[in-house]
Amino acid sequence: xxxxxxxxxxxxxxxxxxxxxxxxxxxxxxxxxxxxxxxxxxxxxxxxxxxxxxxxxxxxxxxxxxxxxxxxxxxxxxxxxxxxxxxxxxxxxxxxxxxxxxxxxxxxxxxxxxxxxxxxxxxxxxxxxxxxxxxxxxxxxxxxxxxxxxxxxxxxxxxxxxxxxxxxxxxxxxxxxxxxxxxxxxxxxxxxxxxxxxxxxxxxxxxxxxxxxxxxxxxxxxxxxxxxxxxxxxxxxx
Amino acid sequence: xxxxxxxxxxxxxxxxxxxxxxxxxxxxxxxxxxxxxxxxxxxxxxxxxxxxxxxxxxxxxxxxxxxxxxxxxxxxxxxxxxxxxxxxxxxxxxxxxxxxxxxxxxxxxxxxxxxxxxxxxxxxxxxxxxxxxxxxxxxxxxxxxxxxxxxxxxxxxxxxxxxxxxxxxxxxxxxxxxxxxxxxxxxxxxxxxxxxxxxxxxxxxxxxxxxxxxxxxxxxxxxxxxxxxxxxxxxxxx
Lengths: 238, 238
What we know:
Helices cover 68% and strands 0% of the residues of chain A.
């Protein structure tokens, strides 16, 4: 799954050979969607680089070489724009949850797929908005909406961990703390990752999932793990 | 080890029975240190609750029931105060590095001890300042200082991971990515943890280290891990 593959930006590249009389209106809708997406991406990049409060709708309009009223045609205000950026990132994670929902795979594999998309979203231009939206003096309604979506994702991760403990693919652990640890590691990507680094977002997400792997090893592996190395442990006074 | 055990706040509770002529000046120094520490703790709590820009030195003085000049006696300005809060947290981690430096324990155990103190620092009142100091429009010199200290800790974690790979106590991995994942999970504690929750900072730090454990399992454990569960994997299309 790659949410960008199905995006209007990509779909616009397909040959438009249909003779349907609805083609023109479909194309207009698609065109509008392409432009709306461009506004959101430009805003996400600006918020990321200059901060939310230091970015004006004028700045975003200038980046796109359009007037401010053009930007207002797609979003009603800056807060809405930030929310749309937040949503664009979060939607990638929600799509991953939907995609794995009916898979026959052990919960551990479904969790890994979700975490991979989570990591990619955090390394995308939307990462900053996803982790910082809540700090920006938003309206109470907007704050509640953002909190609810974050909670939905947190609960989804905990549920997959619980299912993994149940199907034996994840070693018994505290689902809440484990979800916080996994999400925290991934959220932090938005703080240190900048595009054009040596690794792509997908490679970082994949590396993180590999790091998490061992920590979520199947129960059977831990049962046969040799205890010998533990004897070498030196108790460290705290 | 507990850095607070050695703090002047605690030391002040010892009976001051010495007859040394230097006692009075030592006590004055200690008294000054106790007060300086109270100013820093009050500032850390205020920055955490209200944000750096929304907190004035007047607010901090009011919390301590002193005048603003009294606060200025201990720190020269608000930026310095933020830096002292940052330093108070970071110092707990640096102390942990110093403490494990000459231990005979495998690097994995030394790393765990450092991560435990790291997590405790993040769950303390200094956590917010540690992860947010850099975002506060600081002077270039201050920013460089903070970056250098963060880098020192990052390099220290990577070094322990490399040593663990070398002594066989940590499974071969990418030290840089692994350090980012571990630190990210711990840094995020400062975002979600509030005092007076059901778990103390020490309990959270300990829970996180347990979660990390499996991910850093000794090489010998992975060699004997059964491959059977892997066969159940269903390839998830991306």
